[in-house]
Design a protein that fits this description.
With about 110 residues, the protein is mainly α. About 85% of the residues lie in helices and about 0% in strands. Helix 1 runs antiparallel to helix 2.
Amino acid sequence: MKKYKKAQKAVHYSAVGLGAVAAALSSGAIAASLTGVGVIVGAPVAGFAASTGFASTSLTVLNKKVDHKVDKHLRLLSLATAEHDSINCCVSQAMNNNSVSDKEFN
């Protein structure tokens, strides 16, 4: 569970960071391209901005998958805890009565 939480946090911050870099680079590429001569520099910067934007989008999709795994593990953990508590209750009751009936474990 902890590894999924750490992975989720790392992927989230990476996606946000790459998205910010993509936005900054794309606006810089547009500004450079508007000068005329800056097209030489603006075109590669725009390509790099597009690739970082794609990476940010991919990491966002990965973050949703990791989030799904975290939710799944939380549901399984709560189910296991509830079953464990139920069994402990039945065992405690059987220990107090010094007998075990079928009714208690059904």
